[in-house]
Design brief:
CATH class: Mainly Alpha
Shape: globular
Strand content: 5-15%
Number of helices: 7
Helix content: over 70%
Strand order of the largest sheet: 1-2
Radius of gyration: 17 Å
Number of domains: 1
CATH architecture: Up-down Bundle
Structural class: mainly alpha
Length: 214
């Protein structure tokens, strides 16, 4: 039942990505938000796929690879929404984070350096054995995500009128959903050594869907 509900969440997030992109396919903000939500959909799909024995290891690596791209794609969206950032340093941060994100995603997908082994049992559920780069991966994820949040808040403080209201509303959905998923799928496993709470993370994507759709 949990696996099926995760697939449903993945489909809903994918649908959101397609709807936003299709609404204004030439708009950088729509395109980047579509990419951001598409990456989240792949991440949720990976978690859903991890709950079956078939292709368990590939699903785990796909999950980490997709998660690696969530912070930089969010940062790219922040760069252009609701208007492009004028601070030149933001582009340097964006290019650095995107390059790092793709590199980390490739390492996560093709090697055992981030997640080395995954098992699933009826009693304990999903248990993962992390690789030597899991610590640096966690530092990369959290630091890039925090940079994106700081830039989002800084832009919200500078804009006025309708743009400020748009940012305020979207910020609530994005920050709450990503913070929830980060807590259940990264911070708690990092502190406890157990990924028992990881199944909760995908449901936070529903908050983002609700905030954008309403």
């Amino acid at each position: 039942m949990i696996q099926l509900s995760h697939y449903v969440v993945a489909a809903l997030v994918l649908g959101l990505a397609l709807v936003v992109w299709h609404a204004r396919p030439t708009s950088p903000t729509n395109c980047l938000f579509g990419i951001f939500t598409l990456v989240i959909a792949v991440w949720v799909f990976g978690i859903a796929s991890m709950q079956s024995v078939a292709n368990l290891h590939f699903a785990a690596r796909l999950t980490f690879a997709a998660a690696s791209l969530i912070p930089p794609t969010f940062l790219a969206f922040v760069q252009y929404y609701p208007t492009p950032s004028t601070w030149s340093g933001s582009k340097i941060i964006l290019y650095t984070s995107m390059g790092s994100g793709f590199l980390v995603a490739i390492i996560s997908l093709l090697t055992r350096l981030v997640v080395s082994d995954v098992t699933i049992t009826a009693a304990a559920g999903i248990a993962r054995v992390t690789g030597p780069l899991y610590g640096p991966w966690a530092v990369y994820f959290l630091s890039t995500w925090l940079i994106a949040i700081v830039m989002f808040v800084a832009k919200w403080k500078r804009v006025r009128g309708l743009s400020r209201g748009q940012l305020h509303y979207l910020a609530l959905g994005v920050i709450v959903s990503t913070a929830g998923g980060t807590t259940t799928n990264l911070i708690l496993p990092l502190l406890s050594g157990s990924s028992a709470s990881a199944w909760i993370g995908p449901y936070f994507a529903l908050i983002l869907i609700a905030m954008v759709a309403s």
